[in-house]
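Design review, sub-item: ligand-bound model
Attendees: FS, YL, KQ
YL presented the inputs for the adenosine-5'-diphosphate complex:
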Amino acid sequence: MQDFPLTITSLFRHGRRIHADSEVITWTDDGPKMATFAEVGDRADQLAAALSKLGVAEGDRVGTFCWNNQRHLEAYLAVPCMGAVLHTLNIRLFPEQLAYVINHAEDKVVIVDASLVPLLAKVRHELETVEHYIVVGGDGDSGAALGDTLDYETLLAAEEPGFDYPEVSERAAAAMCYTSGTTGNPKGVAYSHRSTYLHSFGIASAQAMAFSQHDRLLLIVPMFHANAWGMPYAGWSVGADLVMPQQFLQAQPLAEIIEATRPTYSGAVPTVLNDILHNRPDADLSSLRQVVCGGSAVPRSLIEGFDETFGVPVVQAWGMTETSPLAAIAHVPRGTDPADAMSWRVRTGRPMPGVEIRICGEDGAVLPWDGQAQGEIEIRGPWITGSYYRDPTDEKFHDGWLRTGDVGTMEPNGFIQISDRAKDVIKSGGEWISSVDLENTLMSHPDVVEAAVVGVPDERWDERPLACVVAAQGRHPDPAELKAYLDGKVAKWWLPERWTTIEEVPKTSVGKFDKKVLRQRYADGELDVVET
Ligand code: ADP
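KQ shared the predicted structure:
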């Protein structure tokens, strides 16, 4: 066989040529703006030419500080294919983390949406390596807060399509993304051309999201968070239209975008889907054949709510920045009685073809797949990171496997069930209580919209669960009643005896429950705790 390199350049050529008419639709204040793959391909050439003139060479990092939009996709294509490395910057990072990741990655150029200039400008004086800022959109003056800037469209207008892309090695870095760093500094993960290529085929396959030219993908997951779960490259490769919602990510505009553009597929974290379910239950989502949901445990109430309210199946998936990100997906195993389907759909998922998963005990021993043994999930495969960028720590790796920091069990058929993140586990009397199970069950109660359960110190048991609940609109959840509701649904010794009602669950920059903050608030005596 030919030793043909697996590069994004090859996917790029394929999409622009074979699916020249497929569309990229960006939502703007003035409604949708459409461009074909052929047009986007030409503009990516112009961007590559402009970046080369600015001195961007092979291996240089180019940052993007952008919403999901057509220009961001142009950078996704141009930067890796010219041999440089696309560094997608999370616009929700705290300023000190943002400055840290730009300096750590040594970004040479940053492409920034005009509307996001003020956020980036906050750290401008701390950035040590950035030579040029390229501002997308705005009125010419929009970049002023960053000092001397270049205008994206002016740069492109000076170039012709038809850039001469170099032959890059499939093992060269194509893109990078930093984890959100809930503890310590963010850690960089570099994706190679090869890993991206294989991940794209993996997620497009029928055993994952089954993408084809007949699809239209709505990219709700930010392109700065684990590559929008791989949808831009996978969609481009098969010629699926890409709908880009920019900053319009609340229930109301999302429902409007879905009704107007009629996407067939989308993906989002539970918080976003919950928002649509609770605030736009009347929306017409019937164009969606499936929605993939992950990033944190997907509550049963959400899956059932989407089934009943919209007739749209939600499929749970699991992954992390380090795993490109898709690692497992919860398709119902064949032969399942339809009456039992939900018992699989609420679980975390089965490994994607191509990745291998195991669980290990605290002593490092590999544990059986019996649905009982609980340990840390470890993973290996061609799109799983083998190290962190410029970071010598290797405690995250175990004999060539990545330690995910997630704790759970595996069924004999390979289904994973995550019970907690290792740093959030609640250990009561030496035994683990699953906060994920408690939260899911609480969130199925009509008085509760969100619930986070954290471990707090306890004299007798070392740790006990504290349930923090957010009331549904107009409701007043009663701890005694909630406890009675949990009784019989989870083990008796899991039932929390400490309860508090909070306005909202604190979230990290990528929208996950930030339990560290809740534990701290409890320690500082800031929470009004009721004992049951
Ligand atoms: P971070 O930067 O916070 O690590 P990631 O997006 O990489 O951001 O987060 C990955 C983590 O998200 C996983 O390790 C896991 O804890 C959590 N996660 C993702 N999907 C699921 C899921 N379906 N169920 C439970 N937890 C999930």
